[in-house]
Design goal:
Elements: E1 6-9, H1 13-24, E2 29-32, E3 44-47, E4 50-53, E5 59-60, H2 68-74, E6 81-82, E7 88-91, E8 94-97, H3 104-113, H4 117-132, H5 141-146, H6 152-166, H7 175-185, E9 191-193
Parallel strand pairs: 1-2
Antiparallel strand pairs: 3-4, 5-9, 6-9, 7-8
Helix pairs in contact: 1-2, 3-4, 4-7
Length: 202
């Protein structure tokens, strides 16, 4: 029987970051994962010769970030290709390139509404209001969005947004958490993508 100071259940992003922080603090840590893969929703799987992401593909990389700090604490380089301000959103009617100058949310909603400026303005106003007075966590972001629009393109776009930037589906993230992310974490953030994921078993 070995002695461990801490046991972390789950080798997703949260579990691995927690284990890294504990290790940096001098603790002896055991990480348990039921699947044969590390990274949870920040990983990939090979299927029929194709690499498929399991969720989040954009990793926060700014200093003093909850994801970056464990790397810094352990003196491990964070190998990411920075993609801040270089995101492209694709829907059935075309592509939208995120502007570096700002106004991204208004532009995104306008793009998804595809010419319906009145609906885009009303929806943007609803987002701004929700960032000021955050909805309760008792409802999901999907439920909140369903109450604002029937537009399938808007829903598809924000499903992709949640999956890529937050690492979860619209129906899984509480509405309050989504808007706290929008208010505190999305502005001025730096995001990157791993050039390759290599997992070695030891």
């Amino acid at each position: 029987m070995e002695h461990w100071d801490a046991i972390v259940i789950g080798a997703g992003m949260g579990g691995l970051c927690a284990a890294a922080r504990l290790t940096a603090g001098g603790k002896r840590v055991l990480v348990l994962e039921k699947s044969g893969h590390l990274g949870g929703r920040c990983s990939h799987r090979e299927h029929d010769g194709v690499r498929v992401t399991t969720g989040a593909i954009m990793i926060p990389m700014a200093e003093h970030n909850a994801t970056r700090e464990p790397f810094d604490l352990l003196g491990v380089p964070l190998h990411l290709i920075e993609l801040t301000g270089r995101m492209r959103y694709r829907l059935r009617h075309g592509d939208f390139d995120q502007a570096k100058s700002g106004g991204g949310l208004r532009g995104l909603i306008g793009f998804a509404c595809n010419g319906d400026d009145m609906h885009a303005s009303a929806l943007f106003d609803a987002f701004v209001a929700a960032m000021k007075t955050v909805p309760p966590d008792m409802i999901t972001f999907k439920a909140w969005l369903d109450g604002q629009t029937d537009n399938p393109d808007v829903k598809d776009l924000f499903q992709g947004f949640c999956a890529a930037l937050i690492g979860t589906n619209m129906h899984e993230i509480p509405a309050g958490e989504f808007f706290r992310f929008m208010r505190y974490s999305s502005r001025g953030s730096r995001f990157g993508m791993a050039p390759a994921i290599i997992i070695e078993r030891v």
